[in-house]
Amino acid sequence: MPTKNILAKLKAEDNYRTLSTLTHQGKFVYKDKKKLLNLASNDYLNLAKNEGLKQAFFESLRAEDFYLSSSSSRSLSGNFSIYEEFESSLAKHFKNKEILHFNSGYHLNFSCIAALGTLKNTLFIADKFIHASIIDGLRGAKFLRFRHNDLTHLESLLEAHHKNYEHIIVMSEALFSMDGDFAPLMELVRLKKAYKNILLYVDEAHSVGCFDTSGLGLVKSLGLEGEIDFLVFTFGKAIASVGACMITSKDFKAFFINKARGFIYSTALPPLNVAWSHFVFSNLANFQAQREHLYDLSNYFRQNLQKKGCEMLGQSYIVSLLCGSNEKVGEISSILLKNGIFAPAIKTPSVPKNAARIRFSLHAGLEIEDLEKVLDIL
User: Fold this and answer.
1) Whole-angstrom distance, CA of residue 277 vs CA of residue 318
2) 168 strand-pairing partners
3) Which of 84, 180, 222, 264 is most deeply buried (CB count within 10 A of its CB)?
């Protein structure tokens, strides 16, 4: 199908994407010179806007880390000392685990899963709502899907297939990015122990930073870090940085260094960015007040949406207002925009057909008064 026909079809389905030029100022963005409250950012702890934190980082920055490019992959000349310092520091919080840094969550998931897919006699079973980066990594591998957070369906698949494979890798997110609900992590660990040949792969993209008094994620807060074989942290959300890391065993770290193509063939991130990630992680325990404020905001917003009879999803700070069709969600997004709220419509393929929504991404820089305005508009 010619490109113009594909684009015309997307426009007809109200599913055509464009880019908006935005200027950022605190919790607001400016679009076409209009000041808008930003409810589309994943800066959950409001650290990207924390000027004091940034100033403290620059004052502590070493000259050897002030490089704006690594100019090479890590396997060649790009393995600056800050990479291994960061990985070693983070690994201290995870017994018998090692850390491997990647350029982004997409690079990590795509290339690590593709590498695992080369292992003989291995089956992947992934939650139906798993992130696109994981699905892309699974292409070409043997995989099945289980209904979202449906443990009965998952166990039926394990029962049917566990004897036929050396390993089955079960894949989930800790906090799902669109529905805003939690994976049943305790039950996933129970199934792992029951079937013996199960490995667990959990992506904490939207939960790292925001759980446990250390800020080291939902898995850590539940004391399950020893049971998760592949734990993924990404840094572009609550960590207010760029990059990602795989937390896994020594053997699998070595395997990914040798087989994860996104690691092998990418120029490493600049040392400056890695130093910033290291600095933020070193200070995560100091942001408990931000985490508690975020929980309070989330509870207030969800409770008041329910009182208004809104159809919504979300168990934490990711709250989705279900609108149904692409046309309907576009109308509601436009009304919010006219009233000073930036909350773009989320449409297929990011969510299932007829499940279009406004995804409110709450963060610690908001106040109750901000959310009251949104509730009034709705």
Assistant:
1) 23
2) 123, 198
3) 180
By the 10 Å C-beta count (0-12 exposed, 13-18 middle, 19+ buried), 2 is classed as: exposed
Contact indicator for 317, 365 with CB cutoff of 8 Å: no
Which residues fall within 8 angstroms of residue 56, CB to CB, at 6 or more apart? 279
Whether the predicted pLDDT of 1 surpasses 70: no
Residue 144 to residue 168: CA distance in whole angstroms? 10
pLDDT of residue 34: 94
| CATH fold for domain 2-50+287-377 | Aspartate Aminotransferase, domain 1 (3.90.1150)
Note the pLDDT of residue 352.
83
- Specify the fold of 63-285: Aspartate Aminotransferase; domain 2 (3.40.640)
Q: What is the largest CA-CA distance in the chain?
A: 61
Phi, psi (degrees; rounded to nearest 5) at 225: -60, -30
Mode of pairing for the β-strands spanning 244-248 and 98-102: antiparallel
DSSP 166: S
Q: How far apart are CA 281 and CA 214, in angstroms?
A: 9
Taking the C-alpha atoms of residue 103 and residue 337, their distance in angstroms, rounded to an integer, is: 33
| Whether 346 contacts 178, CB under 8 Å | yes
The neighbour count for residue 333, using CB atoms within 10 Å, is 22
The amino acid sitting at 283 is: N
R_g over Cα of the chain: 21
Rounded distance, CA 301 to CA 122, Å? 43
Q: How far is CA 54 from the centre of its chain?
A: 23
> Could you tell me which residues are beta bridge partners of residue 201?
171, 230
Task: Order across the sheet with 28-31: list the strands.
Answer: 23-25, 28-31, 34-38, 341-342
Beta strands 230-234 and 198-203 are parallel
Q: SS3 for 126?
A: strand
pTM of the model: 0.95
Pairing of strands 345-346, 356-361: antiparallel
The residue extents of the domains of the chain are 2-50+287-377, 63-285
pLDDT score of 10: 86
